[in-house]
Design brief:
It contains one helix and three strands. The chain has a single domain, classed as Double Stranded RNA Binding Domain, CATH 3.30.160.250. The longest helix is centred in the middle third of the chain and has 18 residues. It is about 25% helix and about 20% strand. The chain starts with 5 loop residues before the first strand and ends in a 20-residue tail after the last helix.
Length: about 70
Amino acid sequence: MELSVVLMPAPEGGYVAYNPETGTTTEGETVEQALENLQEATELYVEEFPLTVAGRPRLTSFHVAEDP
């Protein structure tokens, strides 16, 4: 099963990895470590809560007005 991942730099360093299909979130010092941790966490999640994927999430962006 192929799932999505969103990677973001963590404020304290390293990376946060998030899987939108399951809501699992992990961290790692490197992108590779964050992905490995997310894969492990998501596999454990799916063992407990079987997943039926209706489709892939769609990633887009939007603008938020900044305070003056």
